[in-house]
Amino acid sequence: MTSSRHRSAVLLFAFAFLLVFAQSVVAQGGGGRRPPIFEPKPLPPIDPQVVQDQDSMTWNDYRPIPGIDWTDPKHKPTQRTIRIALVMADHEDQPFVMTLPKHSDPFGNPQIDPVPRDSIARFYADFWNKPQPLNHYRTVHEYWMELSHGRIGVEFTPFGPYRLPGSYTAANQNARLDSIWRAHEGEKIAEGYDLIMRIYAGYDETTVWQEFGEMKFQTRDDISPEFCNPDRSNPCWVRTRYTDWTSWLAGSYLWSNSAITMGESSGSIRHEISHAAFRIGDNNNNPYVTPYRRVGAGPWDVMDRGSFNGPGGPHRRWVIPVTEGGAAPAGLLLRQRIYFGFTDSAQVMRLSRDGLARSGLAVGRVTARAVKPPPGELTGIVVRLDGDKPHDRTPPEDPSRNPLSQGIQNYNEYTMEVVQRIGYDSFLPSSGVIITKNKDQASTTGGPNAFNIFNWVIDANPQDIQMVDFKRPNGEVVMRTIADYRQLNDATFHAGLNSGSQYEWIDVHNRLHFYIVDVHHAENGILSYTLAVRSLDGAGPHTRGVAITPPTAGPAPDGRLTFTLRNSGRAAATAASLHPTDSRRYLQNDVYRLAVSVEGQGWAAQLQNVLAAVPFGGSQQIPVFVSHSTDESTAESAVVTLRAVSESDPTKSVTASFTVRR
Questions:
Q1: Does 419 share its domain with 496?
Q2: CA 438, 444, 449: angle at the middle one, nearest 5?
Q3: Element of type H or E holding 122
């Protein structure tokens, strides 16, 4: 029996050996060497996504807007100047931080030599609105001039300082301060101003609760005496808006608010002015508690955590004076710019979802939002979700169960716009295209854990960014939660292949397909993109067609072959009423999807971009890059084939080939 088993094992081994040998012979062509697979070096992306984290930013990252300096007094607001009364007050138990010796208070402030108390109001008025080395020549007036493209300016008139009776922790401080201010300046003093900005000595709790709470102390029982309640019969900790505890000292200060009430550490002045001057609510969240809820707009808008933008990121917001985190907030998303009246109607392509199904796709070139678009370009695209209700057909989802859910409330429109790291947008984490769902009605607050937001930026990279938030005193690493606003640092869309991002986005439920077709850089460095959007439910009345002319010459030294793509379709008449505004000039294109293949051992062909937008009757050159191996088995020639398919009508496709030689 043992001998039988042995013979069986030997026979099985011999059979397996012969089978493997036979397969090897077949694969090698009767015993020849297998031709190596040629893998060319990847082409550089035409539009790489470059993300810089807020923590690593410095003032060296600021890039001025080419051709205009909004701090120059020759630029006068064309519509209005917001007149702000800057009223300063301190308390017997809380002097102005800026009047203290350098680095002398428990938080390590101020960062510069002290300012005399009687000069404190003028100091802050100049700090916020007079270009100087201390504020790195960035002003609140400049911010509004930049965002509004010269329409809106800001001026401050300083008052005080006034000494308020009682403790800085007392309630109703605004009423007491206003009473003293009027008694000193006259009962009608406030009538001369559009807004009143009250700055109290000390801190905003929003800027210190984390850094001088869970980041400084391992537990609430480890809080050191200088951060404890002076009345030692009380705990050394207090609850804060976001988490269970912070140090008593950090939590004892006011929380800045839309009445433009803030402390000396506040960098949210532009954010609070937005509340008061334009009657808009917050669009932010609480990223520190469960159930987690993804932020709405994050770093891309001042009404969200973009108000924290600036050198050093959010963990440097406690610095006084405010020269780091929060010192250079983001601009405004397109929905807000339209709502605030900061764009001309002719600069926005306004489409409707149902209209796209009847008109065919729309194509436009969109310029970076920090600048006024040149003739022929746009500041953004709006697509209304019209038709039968519900207008937003995304299936309802409980955001408490999925932190990346947009929630259960309907949105009214999509917007597409371009961001570039210039001007105040220098401290955005990246440049590129932002796609956003928006509501018409801006909430007065963010709602419980931001379940009531009005901007929802589509994240081109929705995966967890996997970055450290901070380290606890014992060295324990705390990661950024899935709800942290910096999860949207890589949310921008980009053109072309291998960018690190996406070049298209489809909303199946709302029947829309968005394209980032191409990227452009003007001579002055301004960024713009060719963008397109189409309905999944109709291509319009146009006759679609496509043709390709092959190259007339062999590859250039860089391996480039140039095919010519032509839109052989014909435009049909469309009604001006199909869209909210007459958009017929944007309906004269088709978008094509490209693919390349090659036949020939050892050869390869690559594209940098698989999308092209071509007007009816027009043409566009398409570069194809060919390369080959130096191996002796490489074929002497190869056939390169380019294929193009209409996105509007996939039955319209064409191929063209060209033979290349070594």
A1: yes
A2: 75
A3: helix 120-129
Cβ neighbours of residue 222 under 8 Å, at least 6 residues apart?
Answer: 473
- Overall number of domains in the chain: 4
**Please, what are the averages of pLDDT over each run of 10 residues along the chain (662 residues)?**
42 42 40 72 97 98 97 96 98 97 98 98 98 97 98 98 94 92 96 96 96 97 97 96 95 92 94 92 88 93 95 97 96 97 96 98 98 97 94 88 83 97 98 96 53 87 96 97 96 98 98 98 97 98 98 94 98 97 97 98 97 98 96 95 98 98 92
d(CA 307, CA 103): 26
Rounded to two decimals, what is the model's pTM? Answer: 0.92
Q: Which residues pair with 589 in a beta bridge?
A: 615
* β-bridge mates for residue 507, sequence order: 512
User: How many residues appear in the chain?
Assistant: 662
- With respect to residue 422, please indicate whether it lies within any of the assigned structural domains: yes
Residues 142 and 103 in one domain: yes
> In this structure, are 525 and 611 located in the same domain?
no
Six-digit token string for 220: 């609430």
Domain interval for residue 208: 71-334
Reading phi first (left if > 0) and then psi (alpha if -120 to 50, else beta), residue 67 is in: left
Identify whether residues 458 and 313 lie together within a single domain.
no
Instruction: Please indicate, yes or no, whether residues 417 and 323 belong to a single structural domain of this protein.
Output: no
- Based on the domain organization, do 364 and 455 belong to the same domain? yes
573 and 529, same structural domain? no
pLDDT at position 445 is 47
User: Which two three-digit tokens encode residue 607?
Assistant: 């594209």
CA–CA dist 70, 67 (Å, integer): 10
